[in-house]
Structures are given as C-alpha cells and as structure tokens.
Fold this protein.
Amino acid sequence: MTAAPDGLPPLAALETARLDWRSDASGEAAPHSPAFDDVYFSRHDGRAETEHVFVAGNRLAERFREWREPRPFVVGETGFGTGLNMLCAWACFDAHAAPGARLHLVSTEKFPLGREDLARALAAWPDLAERGEPLVAQWPEPVAGVHRLWLDARVTLDLHLGDAAERLALLEGRVDAWFLDGFAPAKNLEMWRPELFAAMAARSRPGATLATFSCAGVVKRGLAAAGFSWRKAPGFGRKREMLVGEIASPPTDDRRRQTPWFTPPAARPPRHVAVIGAGIAGASAAAALARRGIAVTLIDRQGPGSGGSGNAQGALYVKLAADTNLQSRTYLAGLLHSRRWLETLDPDRELWSPCGVLQLARSEKEQARQTRFLAHHALPEGVVQGVTADETTRLAGIAIDHGGLAYPQAGWVRPAALCARLAALPGIRLRRAEVVAMTPDEQGWSLALADGECLSADQVVVANATLANRFTQTSRLPLQPVRGQVSRLALPEGAPKLERVICATGYVSPALDGKLTFGATFTPHATDTGLREADHAANLAELEATLPALVAALRDAGARLEPSQLTGRAAVRAASPDKSPYCGPLPDAEAWQDDFADLAKGATRIPETPGRHHAGLWISAAHGSRGLASAPLCAELLASRICDEPLPLEQPLVDHLHPGRRLIRDLIQGK
C-alpha cells in the first residue's frame, strides 16, 4: 500500500472480506475466506478453540481476578475477523474481574467483514448475542484508521482497520496480552512478517503475554527476534501444539527521536479532575472522565452550553482538504467518532439527527476542488460520495442547481441541550463560577475563583474557548476569537421541508421546532455578542444565493424574509492559527524555549530531551465552528491519556493536535 503525502497509509476505503459459507465437520455453515482459502472458525468447536488458545493461553481468568490497577487491562489482537476472540475475552472478564476493573480491547483488521456477514457469523453463538449487539450496531464503515466502540460501561474496543504491522506501528498505547491471530502463515505469510513482531514488542508492557495457534518456524523466529520468549503448549483438537510466551523487557519506543517534545508526561491516575468550561469541549471531556469513574467538577461562569456551544441547532459536518493532510484525517475520524458517540449517548435521537449533509459546489473552483478530492480519496459511499444536481435535489427535497458531496454520516445536533445532558451525567458536579488563576500544589492544582474561593483538584482540563489562554500556564497558546451569528426564521404553515443540512459558504439545517436555522457569519477578532441586523441580512443573502428555490417557496408560503423578522444568536468561538484544535498536555513553554533552542539553528538539530509539561494540566480548545466533529474525539483522547489507556488516534494525529506544536514551529522559524 502506497503511503500518502503525510507518510500515513492512504485515507481510503478498505477492501471488505468476501465470504462463502461452507459446512464444517458438524454439518453447520461456517464463514470461509476464498481469498485465503481458510476458515474464520469452525461452528463445531471455534469458540472452544478460542478459549483454549487465546483466553487460557494468556491466563486471562487468573489475571482478571487479580487485576486491581486503576487503568484498564489491555488485550491486543492481530486479526479481528468475526470478533469471536474479543467477545470471549469480554465474557471471561465479566466472569472473573472485580466490579471496578475495566477492559480495553485493541484489534487490527485489514479486510473487515460487512455488517450483515458479521451479524450472521456471530449468530453461531446465541449466548454471545447480547455482547454482539453493540458490536454490530457500532460497526464502522471500512475506512483505514482507528474506530472506538463502547461495548458496555467497562469495556472499550478500538478497531484499527488496515495492515496489522502498519496499524500497530502507529498505535499509541501498550498491551498486556496479545492474541496473535490471523489466517495461517501458509495461507497469509504477508501478515506474519518481522515488522509485525517488532511492532508488537514495542507496544507491549513489561511482562506482556502472547498466545497463538501457530507453531510455524516463521512465527517462532519472528517472536524471538523481537524479544519475546516462547514455548510450546498443548494445542486444541487435532492440532497437537501451540505457542505461548511473554516479553520481560520490551524495547524502547524510538518514535520520539525525531519529535522528543511530544513525549507524553508520566500518567498519574487522578481521583478528581476539574474541567474549566462547559461548552461541547468541556462537557464531553467531563463525560469521558466520569465514564471512567473519575469525580469531575465542571466549572463554567454561565452554565452548560452558554458560549459558542449555546445554539439551539448546529451542523455536524466537516470540509475535507482536496489533498490528504493530517487535519483532514483528524476531522474525518472526529466525524465518524461523533456519529457513534451520539448514537450510544442518545439512541432515541432527541438531541441530534443523522439526516446527512450536502456540501454544494457552487463555483467552478469548488467543483474542481471536489473533483480532486474524490480522485484522491476512494472512501466508502457511506462516508462521502459525489452527487449531481438532480441527486442533491432528490436528497434535499428542494430544487438545487448544483452538485456536490454527500456525507451520509453527518447531520445536525442541539448543542446547548447536548451540553446540558452531558453536564447532568452521574459523577459530574456542575459549578457556576469563574476561574481566574491556577497554581500547582501538593495535591495537584489550586484554582482561584473570582468570588475569592479556592477549589482543589488532582488534575485540570482547560476547555473555556477564547479564555483558554488567560492563565499563566497557557498564555503562550495562540488563539483567535471569531464572532459568528446565526439567524432563525419562524416557518409559516405550508413551508417546504428541507431534508438535509446544506453547506456552501454558509449552512442551513432542516427545520427544528418550527424554525429554520441558517448562517453563520464569520468575523475574526470580534468579541461582541449583540445581534446585528447587517449580519441577518448577510445570512439571508447567502441563503438565497445557495438555495434560491427554497427562498422562493418560503416567500410563496408567506414567510417574511427580512432582517427585522429574524431571531438568532451571536457567539464567539476560538480558533488556532492552523485551524486544528489544541488537545493534549500543556507544555512548559519556558522550558521548551531552553531545551529546544538549537532548533533555531537548524530543524535537524534535535536534542534528546523529552518535552517538559505542566504536570496534570490539559487542554481541549480552538475547535472553531466544527467542534461537534472534533470535541468528542478530543475528549476521548484526553481521558485516554489521563487514564493511561491506548489512544483513539494514530500517533501522528495525536502529535498534530498537541498544544506545543506552535512553539516548535516558532522555534524552527526563529520567532
């Protein structure tokens, strides 16, 4: 697979597995891969084999009983297949682990099954049906990358879709037990190569175990070369032997030699975290931490969803670059993540709608850009596809003169209501207050409030948008305020019904509560939030330029499309200079200035000094107008790092979001 310009595998659809169903020794139909001429499992004894080889081979029952760590136990797997191995590990965890324990499953898959094949394969095990339901319901589109699924309150699954060796090389996280699975080496030698074993070793915790059905020479040699010790153990059924083993001292992860500044701070699991800001960034971060059993104090001077996240309706969408870059990868991952997250959080869809988004190509320049995008991104049609003017008309339910891109996974959300829902979750205490200063202390951090009171917390997440750089520790973080005003029109009886969110220079959403929401203006460096009639006029002009047929139909229905007849809301969002969010640990800017000063003499003069950070201080900010697609993923990223878990993004994308990236750029450029 040829790498993209950013050095990562191409951002594209993966080839899904082609199955045929052949009768096994029991006479039952079992899934078979014609491409590799091998079975996924035997219906007669497939589950028993999994429990013997992988569950017992890694001593999971015993280890789950004894597990008392605050972080989750992590199982890594090299071939997800039907998910049988992961579901069996989950069943073992439920049977033996203490109530407070958590399990994190990480699995790679180059040829993912289609959803229907997955459901049919798992139907072979009725007693696993309850566990299979959330897996099938959240099953992702076959897009290369990391897809996080929440199987239940204690169990998380990260599907890393793509080549196993490539995916594990990009993994940010460490594993306690490995399921070395996949089609037999004689059938699929490409997977069982040295790079795979090396990546496994580098992502292992000291003492990590492994088990595999294969005793092939290539497997034994590969494991030994990577630092694993192995031994033969009794196999299952007709297979006389299998391998088990462990790695006492994993090799040092050398990925940070070129980027030592992004070396993560040592994890110290907190009991209490203060989150400053209750917009979508802060509220989703609070929810992610509370889900892990951490007590959260959510602090906002006005309450949940009162700033840029306070609109009654907002678009869940992304605009991806024509040429693959790290920002587009991050936002696409965020869009797909938000869709699964919302479905899990609100299955009744009271707070959101997956109606889809149409991104119109109104100019020749935009048409050319979209054509180039489609040529460079062979993504599944369930994620994005090109559509003609006739197709946009059919999808939107209103006449449209332009084609564009359709995003079926996108839609709209009630941001203010969503923030309120998140702030009310168990484990979160909402505090109406303003934090004016932060000081490290013996416990962690002392927060000075505007009313003179102090609040203590083990760790702190800063998520208060344009105020995020008001503190001494964050003052070097460049943030740009951007004022935006949305307009709302009360619809008369008989008004046309819009079926999709429509985006061009602005956006308009399907009606909510009898009102049409459209906009939004974009005014950098403006911070006032009073409504402007001129902005209403600009929004009306944009709406008519984008959807003249809709505007004409609204007038025919009696709507008064005049600025004075509109309601709306203005708010200020925060943006970064490169338009990507800040998410991660807060760097000690003064220490970086000293430690990495030689970068000013040449970008290749990289010291070995790890980046120093303010211990227990984190940020999620600069989400701009696309926070619904970025903030929930950033919340999971922060919570995972705080709790010493595998991360839901590849290492280059984690680095792309790091709040210290501008410091390094400025040092290299001599600023």
Q: What stands out?
A: Residues 314-414+485-575 form a domain with the D-Amino Acid Oxidase; Chain A, domain 2 fold (CATH 3.30.9.10). The first helix runs from residue 46 to 56. The chain has 19 helices and 32 strands. The mean pLDDT is 93.
